[in-house]
Protein backbone atom coordinates (compact mmCIF):
# COMPACT_ATOMS: atom_id res chain seq x y z
CA UNK A 1 0.00 0.00 0.00
CA UNK A 2 2.83 2.40 -0.81
CA UNK A 3 4.04 3.67 -4.20
CA UNK A 4 1.84 3.18 -7.23
CA UNK A 5 2.72 1.31 -10.42
CA UNK A 6 1.25 0.94 -13.86
CA UNK A 7 -0.51 -2.37 -14.54
CA UNK A 8 -2.64 -3.71 -17.35
CA UNK A 9 -5.88 -1.75 -17.60
CA UNK A 10 -8.89 -3.30 -15.86
CA UNK A 11 -12.28 -1.62 -15.58
CA UNK A 12 -14.20 -1.25 -12.33
CA UNK A 13 -16.76 -3.74 -13.66
CA UNK A 14 -14.12 -6.37 -14.39
CA UNK A 15 -12.53 -5.97 -10.97
CA UNK A 16 -15.95 -6.16 -9.30
CA UNK A 17 -16.68 -9.46 -11.03
CA UNK A 18 -13.33 -10.88 -9.93
CA UNK A 19 -13.90 -9.70 -6.36
CA UNK A 20 -17.36 -11.27 -6.29
CA UNK A 21 -16.00 -14.59 -7.54
CA UNK A 22 -13.65 -14.63 -4.54
CA UNK A 23 -16.38 -13.41 -2.16
CA UNK A 24 -18.56 -16.37 -3.14
CA UNK A 25 -15.97 -18.93 -2.04
CA UNK A 26 -15.11 -17.22 1.25
CA UNK A 27 -16.63 -19.28 4.11
CA UNK A 28 -18.94 -16.74 5.71
CA UNK A 29 -20.72 -16.37 9.01
CA UNK A 30 -23.65 -14.19 8.06
CA UNK A 31 -22.12 -12.28 5.17
CA UNK A 32 -18.72 -11.50 6.66
CA UNK A 33 -15.74 -13.84 7.05
CA UNK A 34 -12.40 -14.21 8.77
CA UNK A 35 -10.04 -12.74 6.19
CA UNK A 36 -6.95 -14.33 7.76
CA UNK A 37 -8.50 -17.80 7.47
CA UNK A 38 -9.37 -16.94 3.88
CA UNK A 39 -5.73 -16.15 3.11
CA UNK A 40 -4.42 -19.29 4.81
CA UNK A 41 -6.94 -21.61 3.20
CA UNK A 42 -8.73 -20.49 0.03
CA UNK A 43 -6.07 -18.10 -1.27
CA UNK A 44 -3.11 -20.37 -0.48
CA UNK A 45 -4.90 -23.37 -1.99
CA UNK A 46 -5.69 -21.46 -5.18
CA UNK A 47 -2.12 -20.20 -5.49
CA UNK A 48 -0.76 -23.72 -5.08
CA UNK A 49 -3.00 -25.08 -7.83
CA UNK A 50 -1.67 -22.34 -10.12
CA UNK A 51 1.90 -23.46 -9.44
CA UNK A 52 2.82 -20.34 -7.49
CA UNK A 53 2.56 -21.19 -3.78
CA UNK A 54 1.75 -18.21 -1.60
CA UNK A 55 4.05 -17.56 1.34
CA UNK A 56 3.06 -15.48 4.37
CA UNK A 57 5.58 -13.23 6.10
CA UNK A 58 4.48 -11.68 9.40
CA UNK A 59 6.90 -8.95 10.43
CA UNK A 60 7.07 -6.23 13.06
CA UNK A 61 7.06 -2.70 11.74
CA UNK A 62 9.61 -0.19 12.88
CA UNK A 63 8.11 3.05 14.22
CA UNK A 64 5.89 3.85 11.26
CA UNK A 65 8.79 3.32 8.89
CA UNK A 66 7.46 0.32 7.02
CA UNK A 67 4.30 -0.38 5.08
CA UNK A 68 1.52 -2.11 7.04
CA UNK A 69 1.42 -4.75 4.31
CA UNK A 70 2.77 -5.38 0.82
CA UNK A 71 3.19 -8.10 -1.79
CA UNK A 72 6.30 -9.39 -3.54
CA UNK A 73 6.21 -11.85 -6.41
CA UNK A 74 9.52 -13.73 -6.56
CA UNK A 75 8.50 -15.82 -4.67
CA UNK A 76 4.85 -14.81 -4.27
CA UNK A 77 4.69 -13.52 -0.70
CA UNK A 78 2.18 -11.58 1.36
CA UNK A 79 4.01 -9.48 3.93
CA UNK A 80 1.84 -8.21 6.81
CA UNK A 81 2.73 -6.33 9.96
CA UNK A 82 2.11 -8.49 13.02
CA UNK A 83 -0.29 -6.00 14.63
CA UNK A 84 -2.27 -5.61 11.41
CA UNK A 85 -2.56 -9.39 11.00
CA UNK A 86 -3.67 -9.85 14.60
CA UNK A 87 -6.27 -7.07 14.28
CA UNK A 88 -7.55 -8.51 10.99
CA UNK A 89 -7.94 -11.88 12.68
CA UNK A 90 -9.93 -10.16 15.44
CA UNK A 91 -12.23 -8.57 12.88
CA UNK A 92 -11.08 -4.95 13.01
CA UNK A 93 -12.25 -3.07 9.94
CA UNK A 94 -9.12 -1.08 9.15
CA UNK A 95 -6.94 -4.21 9.25
CA UNK A 96 -9.36 -6.31 7.18
CA UNK A 97 -9.27 -3.63 4.48
CA UNK A 98 -5.46 -3.58 4.44
CA UNK A 99 -5.34 -7.36 3.96
CA UNK A 100 -8.12 -7.24 1.35
CA UNK A 101 -6.17 -4.60 -0.56
CA UNK A 102 -3.12 -6.87 -0.72
CA UNK A 103 -5.28 -9.83 -1.77
CA UNK A 104 -6.33 -7.58 -4.64
CA UNK A 105 -2.71 -7.21 -5.70
CA UNK A 106 -2.23 -10.98 -5.54
CA UNK A 107 -5.26 -11.93 -7.64
CA UNK A 108 -5.12 -9.00 -10.08
CA UNK A 109 -1.42 -8.43 -10.62
CA UNK A 110 0.49 -11.64 -10.06
CA UNK A 111 1.45 -11.90 -13.71
CA UNK A 112 2.78 -8.33 -13.72
CA UNK A 113 5.55 -8.72 -11.15
CA UNK A 114 7.93 -6.42 -13.04
CA UNK A 115 5.57 -3.50 -12.50
CA UNK A 116 6.12 -3.74 -8.75
CA UNK A 117 9.90 -3.44 -8.81
CA UNK A 118 11.81 -0.75 -6.94
CA UNK A 119 13.28 0.65 -10.14
CA UNK A 120 12.70 4.38 -10.52
CA UNK A 121 11.36 3.96 -14.06
CA UNK A 122 8.56 1.76 -12.78
CA UNK A 123 7.39 4.34 -10.26
CA UNK A 124 5.04 6.73 -12.02
CA UNK A 125 3.55 9.94 -10.71
CA UNK A 126 0.45 10.16 -12.90
CA UNK A 127 -1.77 7.25 -13.86
CA UNK A 128 -5.35 6.99 -15.00
CA UNK A 129 -7.41 5.00 -12.52
CA UNK A 130 -7.85 1.88 -14.64
CA UNK A 131 -4.06 1.38 -15.01
CA UNK A 132 -3.18 2.20 -11.40
CA UNK A 133 -2.24 -0.83 -9.32
CA UNK A 134 -3.31 0.89 -6.11
CA UNK A 135 -6.67 1.97 -7.53
CA UNK A 136 -7.37 -1.54 -8.77
CA UNK A 137 -6.49 -3.07 -5.38
CA UNK A 138 -8.71 -0.54 -3.59
CA UNK A 139 -11.64 -1.31 -5.88
CA UNK A 140 -11.15 -5.03 -5.31
CA UNK A 141 -11.02 -4.59 -1.52
CA UNK A 142 -14.25 -2.59 -1.49
CA UNK A 143 -16.26 -5.09 -3.52
CA UNK A 144 -14.68 -8.08 -1.78
CA UNK A 145 -15.70 -6.82 1.66
CA UNK A 146 -19.00 -5.09 0.75
CA UNK A 147 -20.73 -6.48 -2.37
CA UNK A 148 -23.29 -4.30 -4.15
CA UNK A 149 -26.27 -6.46 -3.26
CA UNK A 150 -25.44 -6.36 0.46
CA UNK A 151 -24.98 -2.57 0.46
CA UNK A 152 -28.28 -2.08 -1.38
CA UNK A 153 -30.10 -4.50 0.90
CA UNK A 154 -29.55 -2.33 3.99
CA UNK A 155 -28.78 1.18 2.66
CA UNK A 156 -27.53 2.21 6.10
CA UNK A 157 -23.86 3.01 6.66
CA UNK A 158 -23.69 1.88 10.28
CA UNK A 159 -25.53 -1.38 9.57
CA UNK A 160 -23.35 -2.14 6.55
CA UNK A 161 -20.19 -1.36 8.52
CA UNK A 162 -21.28 -3.62 11.38
CA UNK A 163 -22.44 -6.55 9.29
CA UNK A 164 -19.58 -6.46 6.77
CA UNK A 165 -16.97 -5.61 9.45
CA UNK A 166 -15.54 -2.54 7.74
CA UNK A 167 -14.98 1.04 8.84
CA UNK A 168 -17.76 3.59 8.30
CA UNK A 169 -15.90 5.36 5.49
CA UNK A 170 -15.63 2.11 3.51
CA UNK A 171 -19.32 1.37 4.08
CA UNK A 172 -20.26 4.91 3.01
CA UNK A 173 -18.16 4.72 -0.15
CA UNK A 174 -19.49 1.30 -1.14
CA UNK A 175 -23.11 2.34 -0.57
CA UNK A 176 -22.66 5.42 -2.75
CA UNK A 177 -20.98 3.33 -5.45
CA UNK A 178 -23.66 0.64 -5.34
CA UNK A 179 -26.45 3.22 -5.63
CA UNK A 180 -24.72 4.94 -8.54
CA UNK A 181 -24.24 1.94 -10.83
CA UNK A 182 -26.77 1.35 -13.57
CA UNK A 183 -26.70 -2.43 -13.23
CA UNK A 184 -26.12 -3.93 -9.82
CA UNK A 185 -23.61 -6.75 -9.74
CA UNK A 186 -25.48 -10.03 -9.22
CA UNK A 187 -28.87 -8.38 -9.95
CA UNK A 188 -30.73 -11.69 -9.72
CA UNK A 189 -30.11 -12.17 -6.00
CA UNK A 190 -33.37 -11.73 -4.12
CA UNK A 191 -31.69 -9.83 -1.28
CA UNK A 192 -32.93 -12.21 1.42
CA UNK A 193 -30.74 -14.17 3.80
CA UNK A 194 -30.26 -17.93 3.40
CA UNK A 195 -31.41 -19.70 6.57
CA UNK A 196 -28.76 -22.40 6.13
CA UNK A 197 -25.53 -20.50 5.47
CA UNK A 198 -26.45 -16.91 6.25
CA UNK A 199 -25.44 -15.47 2.87
CA UNK A 200 -27.51 -13.02 0.84
CA UNK A 201 -27.18 -15.16 -2.28
CA UNK A 202 -30.69 -16.52 -2.91
CA UNK A 203 -31.64 -16.95 -6.56
CA UNK A 204 -35.22 -17.43 -7.70
CA UNK A 205 -35.93 -20.63 -9.64
CA UNK A 206 -39.61 -20.69 -10.42
CA UNK A 207 -41.56 -20.71 -7.16
CA UNK A 208 -38.47 -21.73 -5.17
CA UNK A 209 -35.37 -19.94 -3.95
CA UNK A 210 -31.95 -21.58 -4.31
CA UNK A 211 -28.86 -20.45 -2.46
CA UNK A 212 -25.96 -19.71 -4.82
CA UNK A 213 -23.52 -20.37 -1.95
CA UNK A 214 -24.64 -23.58 -0.23
CA UNK A 215 -27.28 -24.92 -2.64
CA UNK A 216 -30.16 -24.99 -0.16
CA UNK A 217 -33.62 -24.98 -1.77
CA UNK A 218 -36.34 -23.06 0.03
CA UNK A 219 -39.96 -22.21 -0.65
CA UNK A 220 -40.92 -18.77 -1.93
Number of strands: 6
Distance between the termini: 45 Å
Helix/strand class: alpha+beta
As a percent range, the share of helical residues equals 40-55%
Radius of gyration equals 18 Å
Principal-axis shape:
globular
The strands making up the biggest β-sheet line up spatially as 1-3-2
- The parts where pLDDT drops under 50 for at least 5 residues are 113-119
What's the pLDDT, averaged over the residues?
A: 83
The major beta sheet can be summarized as: 3 strands, mixed
Number of helices: 8
Beta-strand portion reads 5-15%
SSE string, helix = H, strand = E?
HHEEEHHHHHHEEE
Describe this structure in words.
- The structure is a single chain.
- By secondary structure, this protein is an alpha+beta fold.
- It contains eight helices and six strands; from the N terminus they run ααβββααααααβββ.
- It has helices at residues 12-25, 35-49, 82-89, 93-109, 133-145, 148-154, 157-164, 168-180, and strands at 55-59, 69-73, 76-81, 202-205, 208-211, 217-219.
- It has a three-stranded mixed sheet. Strands 4-5-6 form a three-stranded antiparallel sheet, with no helix packed on it.
- A hairpin with a 2-residue loop joins strand 2 and strand 3.
- Helix 1 crosses helix 5, helix 4 (93-109) packs across helix 5 and helix 7 crosses helix 8.
- The longest helix is centred in the middle third of the chain and has 17 residues, at 93-109.
- The protein starts with 11 loop residues before the first helix and ends with a strand.
Amino acid sequence: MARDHRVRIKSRETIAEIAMAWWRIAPKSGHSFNICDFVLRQLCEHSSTKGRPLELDIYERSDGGDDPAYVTFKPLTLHVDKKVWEDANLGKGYARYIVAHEIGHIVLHDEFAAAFSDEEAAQLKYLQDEESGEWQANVFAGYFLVPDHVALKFKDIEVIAGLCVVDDDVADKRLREAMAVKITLNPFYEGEICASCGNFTLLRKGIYLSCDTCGTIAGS
